[in-house]
Design brief:
alpha/beta, Helicase, Ruva Protein, domain 3, Rossmann fold, five-stranded parallel sheet, two-stranded antiparallel sheet
Length: about 300
């Protein structure tokens, strides 16, 4: 079966939606991020299913998964690993830390100090680790999922803009709707369903999908629409800091990945709109509104007229 087969992609999404109930759009965004080769930031209150979503993504794609609980006493070596002296050989041997995994979950990232947070920067950008003058490549694919609690909660450290910019998408699960919550109260447990979740994709499927993302076509008219969006983030009176060139490239890549998961070889304006808030919300700094509300406001300001609706 082809990796772009609608049956295979829909089966992957269906498997995830069996575990994360009532959040189909958010689940599709999470898979979009993985297929695009980016990293994912999940921001929400405790107990919303962030860790379950991360584990489900790894399991449905057949990827090796490791989780670290970030705390205020966490050290960079606890993530990267360390060189340990072997008295028998009188040499140092590097012992890999949990960061050497295909899917790495940084749980409650903003509860660690900036020193521990910074250990992720090289890994996320370069997909490698440098220790004692040596460079160690990370497994491929390498996907960081970080969860963070709202900054108003006790014991949290703000993530700097440079680190936020490393995440392709930021999403939130939010409260379940009443019907889904009733199912949960009646005994439908996502954790129990997770234990039964079987891989649908494998590593070869995922790599093939990631290689296809840059090949998804974008017309000149659609690129014009994206540039108008980017210009709006930089020029709007309510926006203090707009999208950087890296943020603009992230928007293109996320839109291509979203279109691929829709089974198309070209991007529509609707694909850009579907990912814009998740791409821009954590990168924009507004004078009044912040995050998602500001991104939604700017998205509504830019006219789609002229953007092609065909390949």
């Amino acid at each position: 079966m082809s990796v772009t087969s609608p049956q295979l992609l829909n089966a992957t999404l269906d498997a995830l939606n069996q575990v994360i109930l009532g959040k189909a759009h958010t689940v599709r965004l999470a898979l979009t991020c993985l297929v695009a080769g980016g990293h994912l930031l999940l921001e929400d209150l405790p107990g919303m299913g962030k860790t379950t979503l991360a584990h489900a993504l790894a399991q449905v794609c057949g990827l090796a998964y490791k989780r670290v609980q970030f705390t205020s006493d966490l050290l960079p070596a606890d993530l990267i690993g360390a060189s340990i002296f072997d008295p028998k050989t009188t040499t140092f041997h590097f012992h890999q830390g949990p960061l050497f995994s295909q899917v790495f979950l940084a749980d409650e990232l903003n509860r660690a100090t900036p020193k521990a947070q910074s250990a992720l920067l090289e890994a996320m950008e370069e997909k490698q680790i440098s220790v004692d003058g040596k460079t160690y490549p990370l497994p491929q694919p390498f996907f960081v999922i970080a969860t963070q609690n709202p900054q108003a909660q006790l014991g949290t450290f703000n993530l700097p803009e440079s680190q936020l910019d490393r995440f392709l998408l930021r999403i939130s699960l939010g409260y379940p709707d009443p019907a889904v919550e009733r199912e949960m109260l009646a005994g439908r447990n996502g954790r129990q369903l997770l234990a039964k979740l079987q891989p649908v994709l494998n590593m070869e499927h995922l790599r093939a999908l990631q290689q296809l993302v840059p090949q998804i076509k974008m017309t000149d008219a659609l690129l014009d629409y994206i540039q108008r969006l980017i210009a709006c983030t930089r020029q709007h009176e309510r926006c203090q800091v707009g999208l950087s060139p890296r943020g603009a490239l992230a928007l293109v890549r996320a839109a291509q990945s979203w279109a691929l998961l829709q089974g198309r070889s070209y991007v529509l304006p609707e694909d850009v709109q579907a990912v814009f808030v998740a791409v821009a919300g954590h990168r924009l700094i507004g004078r009044h509104e912040q995050g998602e509300p500001l991104a939604r406001l700017l998205l509504a300001q830019v006219d789609v007229v002229g953007a092609s609706r065909a390949a």
